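Review form for a predicted model. The reviewer records the input and the model, then writes brief findings.
Reviewer: anonymous (R2)
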Amino acid sequence: MIGIEMNTVATTRMSSKGQIVIPEEIRNALHLKPGTKFVVVGEGDVVVLKTITPPSSNEFKNMILKAREAAYEAGMTPGDIEEAISEVRSEKCGS
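Model under review:
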């Protein structure tokens, strides 16, 4: 785990509403603030919480650049991309 020592362990329990309090020492160690969003993954008796962090402006620009380069190398045109987006949107809308 990044930002937290492996020996930082705490216990908590789930409320009747399914809510779990992340213990203060864990919140402090990970710099978690109210409103932090998480992805929750469960398998067997393991539950993993992973914070959702949006990419920085530079990271986002780099992702867009890589996507454009990959599209160019694949020979895709802007029209191909618009068509693919339209197909996915129509599938989601049930059209």
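Findings: The two ends are 44 Å apart (CA to CA).
Further findings: The mean pLDDT is 88.
Recommendation: see findings above.
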